[in-house]
Queue: 2 jobs
Job 1
Amino acid sequence: WGACVDIPSTPGTDTGPNFRSLARFVHAIPGGPAGDIKVDGATIGNIALGAATGYSDIASGTRSVVFGANAAQNLSFGSEQQSTFVIYLDPTGAQAYLNLVEGHKDKNNALANKIKIKFVNLAQGSADVTFRANSPTGADVKTGVSFASASQYTEFDTLPTPSTAIYAISNGGYLVTQF
């Protein structure tokens, strides 16, 4: 994926802007130990399964990222983007990162008052996942989310009820979460 940036070009402007990215990391490896997250050798946090680091201000571009005792991987950080990187295991059992680009900072004002949800499938061996509201047979919220992918944001003006249950349906079974 790529990132778009605004580079000043009028006389008297800074032609060498300092492009930055905000990024956090989420540990999603079942049974995996807690570990440090390092970006270009600097520790930005230590996370256990299900936990996330806070957002870190990171220089845009390709950066070396290490989680725990695993090998370094090069990840791309887009300029002016806010991202969550989910750490998971791919089908071969190798560690991988799924970048959930959350959007450009301060540029999504038309959607500022909407509820935005991104649906993710990290269930190895599962068929595509369908997300439904309030029951396993309820209205589809998002369909066809395949393994190691994330949907684009689904936008809601309001949620159907003050506490909405979202069901993740796959392979004839389901999991539920409520928010």
Note: The chain has a mean pLDDT of 77.
Job 2
Amino acid sequence: GEAGRYRMPVLARAYAAARRAAEDPPEMTALASERLFAGWLELADHADRQLPGHPWVPPPPALQQPPVLPPGLYPVTPAAAGAWLGKERASLLTLTAAACAGNYALAAQLADRQFASQCQMAAFTDGSHLWDMIAAAASRAGDTLAAAHARYRLAAMTVAEGRKSRQASRLLAGCLTMFR
């Protein structure tokens, strides 16, 4: 793995999952998952707010949840925020995909807070993948507004990439159709 980063071996992860399933009540597992997602969302939000925004996409709204993390954990400078988002890129992608499986609105909040850094790192495929997944989940749930928002973000990511204007035009036309 990466220097300074710890990874949980597959066997230890499987053992922990089996113990959790056997010993922890489902409501406790759900609460722990909520705290985990809330903490990551809080960190990603703070880091994202340190970076310059993207000119085509407004910043995400302020979080309405109460803080779950102690204040000293946040990256405090734009350089530290960019470094944190870069180091946590794979974790944030995995976490956002996991959130999308059960809560596409949470996944959209997480993806919103990765947009600027993905553009800065030229990680357009990451952003496109997330927004496509979120749009599909929102569409399956019948949430037209959330699906249109996700398609708009997908179009913005496509334009930011700088070479797929026809694809972006089709995505934006689809958004307009959804808003009618």
Note: The chain has a mean pLDDT of 84.
